């Protein structure tokens, strides 16, 4: 048995990394989604719109820039799926959830930021995505994506 | 304008399918593709190996020789020449000019046949060998690979392994392709090794008039590595099985078994210089 493991050490390492990547990755993802959904429903009352001018009836008392960003890393399992996807083509399903999580987390952080500033709504909302570690498919490189959400937090004059 | 707070329905931006299901499809597809290609190439290289002119093989050999230049060894070459000298007159191997090289830096207990009549012996093998008869059995086994043109067939298939690794390159997972391939290779190679053993045994008998020492080396290997599982997926058969098979052949053909000639003392140290 020991000999078998030693002779096939490359495969054993690969298997361990895959299992670790899958278990840890899906646990983290599940937990993250639970938190995202909880906070989304908590902050659903705060409007975030992408129009440039605040179409509100009251006067604007204060307006500031608010940002929120999140960086989410891939795991070994997701990367392996994506590499195989490169051969066959089609939707890279394993990366979809990463991008989705990064975007929603960034929006949530931006909203939290706006709430802290006692804003009533966020206008001119924008969302940017960028990759960190462009050579993420190379050996020993860590790939992750960053989503940045920003907008103008507006506080209305209370009458 | 009235603002109505509402959450989006469901996760529209992510696919619902289970990642493990996707993994199974992708891996299954990739392996199927690789296996089909490998078997096809194995077939093509088999046909090519039989029809490849000796000139072309010698040309390939001359390119490889450069790698081993300066690693020639008189003692080994004498032994190899001794074996070539007793080949039957009608043997195809007479068309080759056999050259042998000693790779001191390689500790593996291994020897291999390369195109154009080149044999490379690893330093580790020489240290493991105890008699001249054993050494000749191993060299005769390698000559058997030339007689069956196994070395050319393996070359074609290893090309596909390199190609498969290249497809997945840039990731640790590229180790996986050679691994899969080595398991497939096993199907071809264990058969080839057994055939080369049988061929080598016959030549050993021609050389010494008996086959003493033919099984000694494999016996020791079998004692060293009792773990059968390690050989389950290896390219070479389990040494114990080879000993059994050789003994059966010795019985069948009525080969004599006499005393072996021990390797001259200090020959290993001397060759290391």
How is this structure best described in words?
The complex is a heterodimer of chains A (159) and B (273). Chain A has 159 residues and is of the alpha+beta class. Chain A has four helices and three strands; from the N terminus they run ααβααββ. Chain A has a three-stranded antiparallel β-sheet. The radius of gyration of chain A is 21 Å and the shape is elongated. Chain A starts with a helix and ends with a strand. Helices cover 61% and strands 5% of the residues of chain B. Chain B has eleven helices and three strands. In chain B, strands 1-3-2 form a three-stranded mixed β-sheet, with helices on both faces. Chain B is elongated, with a radius of gyration of 25 Å. The chains are: A alpha+beta (159), B mainly alpha (273). The interface between A and B is large, with 41 and 35 residues.
Summed up, the domain count of chain B is 1
- Quaternary structure: heterodimer
Proportion of helical residues of chain B: 55-70%
Q: Order of strands side by side in the largest beta sheet of chain B?
A: 1-3-2
Order of SSEs of chain A: HHEHHEE
* Beta-strand fraction estimate of chain A: 15-25%
Mean pLDDT of chain B: 79
Alpha carbon gap, first and last residue of chain B: 92 Å
- The end-to-end span of chain A amounts to 79 Å
Largest protein interface, residues of each chain:
A-B, 41 and 35 residues
Given helix and strand content, the structural type of chain A is: alpha+beta
Going across the biggest sheet of chain A, name each strand in turn: 1-3-2
Large-scale geometry of chain B: elongated
Radius of gyration of chain A: 21 Å
Q: Into which percentage range does the β-strand content of chain B fall? A: 5-15%
Residue runs with pLDDT of under 50 for 5 or more positions of chain B: none
Mean pLDDT of chain A: 87
The helix content of chain A is 40-55%
CATH C-level category of chain A: Alpha Beta
């Amino acid at each position: 048995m020991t000999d078998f493991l030693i002779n096939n050490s490359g495969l054993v390492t690969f298997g361990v990394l895959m299992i670790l990547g899958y278990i840890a990755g899906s646990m983290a993802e599940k937990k993250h989604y639970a938190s995202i959904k909880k906070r989304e429903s908590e902050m659903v009352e705060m409007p975030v719109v992408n129009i440039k001018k605040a179409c509100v009836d009251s006067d604007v008392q204060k307006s500031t820039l608010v940002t929120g960003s999140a960086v989410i890393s891939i795991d070994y399992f997701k990367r392996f799926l994506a590499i195989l996807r490169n051969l066959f083509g089609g939707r890279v399903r394993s990366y979809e959830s990463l991008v989705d999580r990064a975007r929603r987390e960034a929006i949530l952080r931006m909203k939290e930021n706006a709430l802290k500033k006692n804003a009533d709504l966020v206008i001119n909302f924008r969302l940017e995505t960028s990759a960190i570690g462009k050579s993420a498919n190379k050996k020993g490189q860590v790939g992750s994506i960053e989503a940045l959400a920003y907008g103008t937090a507006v506080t209305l004059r209370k009458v | 304008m009235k603002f109505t707070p509402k959450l989006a329905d469901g996760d529209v931006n992510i696919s619902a399918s289970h990642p493990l299901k996707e993994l199974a499809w992708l891996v299954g597809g990739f392996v199927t593709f690789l296996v089909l290609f490998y078997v096809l190439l194995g077939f093509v290289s088999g046909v090519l190996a039989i029809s490849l002119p000796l000139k072309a093989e010698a040309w390939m050999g001359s390119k490889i020789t450069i790698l081993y230049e300066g690693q020639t060894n008189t003692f080994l070459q004498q032994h190899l020449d001794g074996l070539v000298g007793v080949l039957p007159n009608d043997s195809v191997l007479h068309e080759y000019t056999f050259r042998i090289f000693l790779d001191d830096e390689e500790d593996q207990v291994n020897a291999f046949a390369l195109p154009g009549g080149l044999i490379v012996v690893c330093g580790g093998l020489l240290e493991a060998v105890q008699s001249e008869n054993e050494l000749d059995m191993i060299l005769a086994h390698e000559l058997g690979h030339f007689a069956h043109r196994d070395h050319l067939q393996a070359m074609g298939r290893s090309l596909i392994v390199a190609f498969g690794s290249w497809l997945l390159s840039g990731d640790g997972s590229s180790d996986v392709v050679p691994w899969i391939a080595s398991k497939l290779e096993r199907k071809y190679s264990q058969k080839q090794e057994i055939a080369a053993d049988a061929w080598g045994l016959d030549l050993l008998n021609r050389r010494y008039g008996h086959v003493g020492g033919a099984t000694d080396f494999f016996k020791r290997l079998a004692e060293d590595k009792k773990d059968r599982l390690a050989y389950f997926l290896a390219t070479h058969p389990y040494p114990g099985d080879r000993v059994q098979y050789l003994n059966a052949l010795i019985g069948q053909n009525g080969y004599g078994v006499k005393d072996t000639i021990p390797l001259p003392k200090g020959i290993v140290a001397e060759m290391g210089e």
